[in-house]
Design a protein that fits this description.
- This protein is an alpha+beta fold.
- It has a single domain, classed as Fimbrial-type adhesion domain (Immunoglobulin-like).
- It has a 5-stranded antiparallel β-sheet. A 3-stranded antiparallel β-sheet has the order 6-3-8, with no helix packed on it.
- The N terminus is likely disordered.
- This is Fimbrial protein.
- It comes from Affinibrenneria salicis.
- Keywords: Fimbrium, Signal.
Length: 184
Amino acid sequence: MILPDIFYRRAVAIRIAQVFGLWGCLLSAHADLGMTNMQLTATLVSNSCSVSVDSQEQTVNMGTLATKQFAVSKTGATPVRFVINLESCGSAVTSVSATFSGTTDADDSTLLALSTDSSASHVGVAILDKDRNRLSIGNASEQYPLTAGASNAQLVFFGQYVATQDSVTAGSANGDVTFTLNYQ
């Protein structure tokens, strides 16, 4: 009985030696590949702003307008200013643009259509940038530069009623728009 036990131990020892020998060969072959260690470092900065609470659910009062102000198609009322206030802007933000989206008017796709609860007709709402240039619905505005190091900013826009036909019908004229901010 002792003889087979010795043979068994010797066979196990030989197998272990073979495994470690093979592992050693692999390590030495691996070392010949010229491996080096590399460390990657980065600093992550916030590249956006938060929309302040007063700008998240705004209602812009466009006033009371007489239909005679819209004698012919494409006539616009006086633009009404509104602001999107930003806060907690990250240090990496250099500029921001806004994209306004909503249902476009059937007669003029650059205007927002009146909402279904409106009773007025043949009028739409234009969104204008700070220089009072009309923005196309669904397209980004020009970039508004942000002051370096400033944590708050104001984006100025205007809303304007525009006649889409020669005969504007009186009634409530409400529109809904959503904006998306694009940072650089």
